[in-house]
Amino acid sequence: NKKAFVELLFWKSPAAIREMTEGYGSLQEGDGASRSRAPPWTPQEEQELRELYWKYKEVEGEDVIAAILAHLPAPGRTRRQVVKQLVRL
Q: How many distinct helices (H) and strands (E) make up the chain?
């Protein structure tokens, strides 16, 4: 490809660099961005999250998100995922 040299001069992101070095389509095989993507929230998890939020939002001196994470039945959720989902809801 005669234009590959020009493409090497203007990198856009680490993902673009990886595609250029490992071959185009390498990110679509499941090694790249899809690996770090969090699983979607199910309606049952959203309902449980709502209930836990309403239960712990008025507790004085306690971190609401920490309390929700301690009582959330789905393991593997991070603090950031919980906060993002609460804002979305």
A: 6, 0
